[in-house]
Amino acid sequence: MSTVLLLNGPNLGILGDREPEIYGHHTVDDIARSVADEVAGAGWQVVPVQDDCEGGLVRTVHAHRRSTVGAIVNPGALMMAGWSLRDALAAYPAPWIEVHLSNVWARERFRHESVLAPLASGVVVGLGAFGYRLAARALLELCHPDHARRS
Ligand code: DQA
């Protein structure tokens, strides 16, 4: 069975409780379930990992380099300066999509640049938890042979 890595970075473990007016009411578990639901039809499964430490995220990317068909990554604030996560993703061989729940360009200037985005296959911002579903659909489109044939 093909596996998708779902990576959530610092402060995303408290989603649902964290500034819900910005990030919404969904928890990381809700998000993991919705991504699993999105890819289940294709026979894929999801490995959801949330880590507040950059080193833990780097290790997770390494550990899943060969065993996953793609990844969905919300790096949280590591988008701005997560250079070691960036390098880990540079060595990740499959497509991956960067997701941000909030529209980072409508917020403070320090959130306007991602050091990861130039390496991503695509970026989804500002659509809340639904953005993860869209990222899952994009991975299906990019990686699943049946889906690619249909489009
Ligand atoms: C975020 C946006 C980042 O700027 C912020 O540091 C986060 C969450 C988002 O999903 O909107 O932690 O990645």
What does it look like?
The chain is α/β, with parallel strands linked by helices and 151 residues long. The chain has a single domain, classed as Rossmann fold (3-Layer(aba) Sandwich). It is built from seven helices and five strands, in the order E-H-H-E-H-E-H-H-E-E-H-H. Strands 2-1-3-4-5 form a five-stranded parallel β-sheet, sandwiched between helices. Helix 2 runs parallel beside helix 6 (130-143) and helix 3 (54-63) packs parallel to helix 5 (83-90). The longest helix has 14 residues, at 130-143. The mean pLDDT is 95. The structure holds 1,3,4-trihydroxy-5-OXO-cyclohexanecarboxylic acid (DQA). 1,3,4-trihydroxy-5-OXO-cyclohexanecarboxylic acid binds next to loops.
In short:
With 151 residues, the chain is of the alpha/beta class.
Considering the chains and any ligands shown, give keywords for the structure.
151 residues, alpha/beta, five-stranded parallel beta sheet, Rossmann fold, binds 1,3,4-trihydroxy-5-OXO-cyclohexanecarboxylic acid
Rg, alpha carbons: 14 Å
Task: Name the CATH homologous superfamily.
Answer: Dehydroquinase, class II
Major sheet description:
5 strands, parallel
Strand numbers in spatial order across the main sheet: 2-1-3-4-5
Share in helix:
25-40%
Distinct ligands: 1,3,4-trihydroxy-5-OXO-cyclohexanecarboxylic acid
CATH architecture: 3-Layer(aba) Sandwich
Q: Beta-sheet strand percentage? A: 15-25%
